[in-house]
């Protein structure tokens, strides 16, 4: 990878890692469902005027918007509102990688490799340890909702695989058209007109900066740069960079929000990261070992 593209990869990781701190700050002034509606409304407009709609059936575009956009962030924003710390959210959300493996086997008939199963078991053990230490820093409801968010992200990944090669930026922008109306309805239903009115009346510079970051930074800029990298390099070269997202998320939350992990949570976090590393690079390492000992790399 060229130095320029390496820098772009690091920009994406920092933007996505910091995303969780920004969400936490935004939820101080804007309720979760309203924040989701405003985020995706801003991500869709005016970008759809300049970015072509991806060539895919409408039903798959609706499915993508309903899962990876509406479902994921309805659960994630709610989780962080009811007690999921920003740093741990950035880590637990990465369990989407294992949900994706499960759903791919279930719906697409893809086979699980031994390294996938090993990584899954290690990461699952880490998640159990994290979930066991629910105290003031993390509620059980927040943890469960974050797991639900990860499963919705994984379903969105399956939709993306089903539609094949499409422009990722176009998919994200046009997929952002789907969530605003359901989010506004959920906000009216769950948060109420008075809460919505109060949030909009108190809408200030901080809230605007949060929305700009979420819509243009984490969504459009992040996915634009990520799709550029995926178009220029093999997926197994780009994918490992995603392991740095929870590192940035945990570090930024500790520095900016004074979040700190308990002992079990810290051990669990290390196990989740180890599981993710085995899942991403285990196949390559196993192939190298087989080659080194005279076997077939396949």
UniProtKB/TrEMBL annotation:
Its main location: membrane. InterPro entries: AA-Vitamin_Transporters (IPR050638), EamA_dom (IPR000620), EmrE-like (IPR037185). Residues 6-131, 142-279 form the EamA domain. It comes from the Bacteria. GO terms for cellular component: membrane. It is found in: Membrane. Keywords: Membrane, Transmembrane, Transmembrane helix. The keyword Transmembrane helix applies. This is Acetylserine transporter. It comes from Stutzerimonas stutzeri.
